[in-house]
């Protein structure tokens, strides 16, 4: 059916975005508004908010950040961040006098973790990203 085909296209688009998520800052923040529309028993209602985040993801794909190659002789920096429903981070190095992104990471939090206080979410983000970028931090 036409509805099924549209759902498959939405899943394909999110799959493409997921493949390039290391090049897309705050990927999970934009994804959260579209992910529910791919669920089997979810009623499809396209809102202005979803249109906005769909546009953001398309734009971020078109202008995905160019990642720098890590230099093991230069100190790494991690910048974690959190929002109401997700955590994310960027791994940076200062190269040629400028901060260069090496990797981006983000994920959605479970419903229970979304209820954490902001300081707890920031700590959760720091712990998660420390594990995610462990090979860079600890060698």
What does this protein look like?
It contains 5 helices and 3 strands, in the order αααβββαα. 45% of the residues lie in helices and 20% in strands. The radius of gyration is 17 Å and the shape is globular. It folds into 2 domains: 2-62, no CATH class; 76-138, Roll (Ubiquitin-like (UB roll)). With 139 residues, the protein is α+β, with helices and mostly antiparallel strands. A 3-stranded antiparallel sheet has the order 1-2-3. The model has no long low-confidence stretch (mean pLDDT 80).
Tally of individual helices: 5
Do you know the CATH topology of the largest domain? Ubiquitin-like (UB roll)
**Nearest-angstrom radius of gyration?**
17 Å
The best one-word shape is: globular
Query: Per CATH, which architecture of the largest domain?
Result: Roll
| Helix-strand topology string | HHHEEEHH
Number of strands: 3
Main pleated sheet: 3 strands, antiparallel
Distance between the termini: 51 Å
Percent of residues in helices: 40-55%
Average pLDDT: 80
Pfam families: RT_RNaseH_2
Protein name: Reverse transcriptase/retrotransposon-derived protein RNase H-like domain-containing protein
GO molecular function: endonuclease activity; RNA-directed DNA polymerase activity
Keywords: Endonuclease, Hydrolase, Multifunctional enzyme, Nuclease, Nucleotidyltransferase, RNA-directed DNA polymerase, Transferase
Keyphrases for this structure?
2 domains, 3-stranded antiparallel sheet, Ubiquitin-like (UB roll), alpha+beta, 139 residues, globular, 5 helices
């Amino acid at each position: 059916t036409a509805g099924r085909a549209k759902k498959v296209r939405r899943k394909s688009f999110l799959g493409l975005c997921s493949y390039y998520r290391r090049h897309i800052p705050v990927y999970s923040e934009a994804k959260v508004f579209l992910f529910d529309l791919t669920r089997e028993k979810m009623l499809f209602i396209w809102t202005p908010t979803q249109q906005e985040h769909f546009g953001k993801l398309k734009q971020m794909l078109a202008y995905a950040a160019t990642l720098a190659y890590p230099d093991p002789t230069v100190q790494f920096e991690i910048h974690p961040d959190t929002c109401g429903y997700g955590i994310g981070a960027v791994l940076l190095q200062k190269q040629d006098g400028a901060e260069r992104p090496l990797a981006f990471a983000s994920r959605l939090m479970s419903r229970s973790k979304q209820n954490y206080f902001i300081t707890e979410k920031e700590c959760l983000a720091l712990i998660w990203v420390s594990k995610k970028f462990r090979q860079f931090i600890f060698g």
